[in-house]
Every structure is written in structure tokens, then in C-alpha cells.
Hints:
Elements: H1 2-24, E1 51-57, H2 61-64, E2 93-94, E3 100-103, E4 107-110, H3 116-129, E5 137-142, E6 146-151, E7 157-160, H4 168-174, E8 182-193, E9 196-202, E10 222-227, H5 229-265
Parallel strand pairs: 6-10
Antiparallel strand pairs: 1-2, 1-5, 3-4, 6-7, 8-9, 8-10
Amino acid sequence: MKYINFVIMAIALLFASCNAQQRVLYLQDVQNGAEIKLPKNYQIKIKPLDEITVIVNSKNPELALPFNSSSSYNAISGSGYTASVTENSLQVFTVDNRGYITLPIIGEIKCAGLTRDELADIIEKKIIDSNYISDPQVNVRFANLYISILGEVARPGRYDIKRDKITVLEALALAGDMTIFGSREDVAVIREIDGKNVVTKLDLRSSDIFESPCYYLEQNDVIVVSPNKYKAATAEINQNRSFWISLASTGISLATLLLTIITVSK
């Protein structure tokens, strides 16, 4: 009988262990060696109120100087482009609500909905067509990229990101990964689209996340990791325990007060 009970307990523990593993594993349906196609040269698109820097370079530094806010250049001898701007001297341009920025010499340019490379190509073409510089090289960068990560992660908060190609998995890694109580099948990405907050739910246990428009994150995205049912149950137990402890404490206080009153009245 003891041997049968031991076998039953072992089987129960095995099933419990398997269920626990399924709750916390990522990409459970991906086979070893699987190839998943991802977009090539992915870049996020510029939005109103984004902050960007635009640097115009040329083989002749003096020709590029009027297009930049900086007066500090380092000429580097050798082949290729020789004009460069120091990091601290960059002017930050804020995209207005119409989706435009105003650049020195060039004037207004619509950039909302474009990638960095697309905007750089348009600026280069304007400079060439206006006969300002025959060999411009334009570099566009974001100055204020960040995402927010909330819920069941080790380090929730707002994170500045250095590049405009970051996946939801990389973002969770920035926050120290999900806690053991994080629901892998219920991760929400909140994204502002055309003045509305759009919520996309992701199941990180499935390879379907690679096909989601929120696999690659955009500026100002908010990731919310929901607690699983075990965390919710624990919270409810703790809340109920606190209620009963508080109720018992109040009852003891009332009983003590009543006993004191009776003793004094005698």
C-alpha cells in the first residue's frame, strides 16, 4: 500500500511539474532548427512630437556647415566623408503636430510616417536638386526613444533605447524578464495609433508572436505583463487574511473595552 501511494504521489508531482513548465516556457511550439522569417532592415516610422537629429556631411566640410546647427567639425584625413559633428553639439528637431520639421537652409520637410533612411534620402535629394552640395551624406537619428514595461517583471519602469529595432523579448530582458508569476500567454502591448491607444495581446508561448505587428516595438509603446491565476489567488488569500486579522483585532479590542467597562462599573 505504501508503495502504491508513493507511485501515485510521484505521478502527481510529475504532472504538476510539467504543467508548471508549460506556464513559464517561451516559444513552446518552436522546433529545434526552425527558421522564422523576419522583416529585413526594419525601422520604426517617425511620428509627431518625436525628437530627431539631422546631420549633413560632405567631402567639403565648409559646404555642409550651413545645414547643421553645429559649428564644431573634426576633419579626418583619408578617404570617404571628412565632416563630422560632435555628439554634444547636435541640435534636436521636434516633429510638430502636422508631422513636419524645419531644417536650416532646406526649410520645412514632412517626415511623419517615414523611416530614418527614407527621410535621409529625401533630404539628400533636396540638397542635390537645389545645387547646394553634389555629394551630401545625411544621417538621421532619434533623440528620445523609450518604452515602458509594467506588471509582473523584475524591474518595471521606463527604459531609454539606443536603437529603433527592439523586439518585445529584448524589452522584457531589459526589465530582468518576467517573474515566475507573469502570465506568458497574456502580455499586452499598448500603442498609440492615430490618436487612439490600441491594445495588442501576445502569447509568448507561441511562435505566432513573430507575425505580430507588435513583435518589433515602437517609440512610446507600453508593455503590460499580467499576473497569472496563482499570483491572483495568492493576493486574494493575503487580502482575506489581512481582513480577518483586522476583524479579529477589532473584536479583541472591543471585548477588552467592554470587559474594562464592566469591571469599572462593579
